[in-house]
Request: fold
Amino acid sequence: MGKLAAGALRAVLLVVLVGTVLVQALMVWTLVSGRDPEDGSLPLTALRVITILGMVSVQVAVVCVGRLVTMVRRGTVFSHAAFRYVDGVIGAIVAAALVWFAVTVVNAPGQREDPGVTVIMGGVGVAILGVALVVYVLRMLLAQAVARDAEASQLQAELAEVI
Reply:
């Protein structure tokens, strides 16, 4: 990964992290202060709480991806330490899917005349879970690469002894 790509990715991650923290702060302030512009209707309050939780999942994913970018730049991504961050990304994506399903449930009563919206929202949740599965497959590829790297190091050490 080049310096330009890593720098651009870090900049994007930083913007997303700062943006999510600001959205969370505004949501918490609205909930705590009692100055709700929509008069604190129950579905809207539930959606605000869900939004706060959704932002946490985004923040976890951003931090984990940031750590993985650092590992790539250092050349240490093919190690067992990377699995912790990949697992964090997978967990954050699954949490985001669960949050989306919660949004779907909160939104469903308002869609009685047009249940297709709820079905589409459920489909989006399944698609988010599909992304988690893709990252899981990539985790398996990382595991194979780490195993091959360890095997290559062992063979190189044995060859050095023979020579």
About this structure: Helices lie at 3-33, 42-74, 81-107, 116-162.
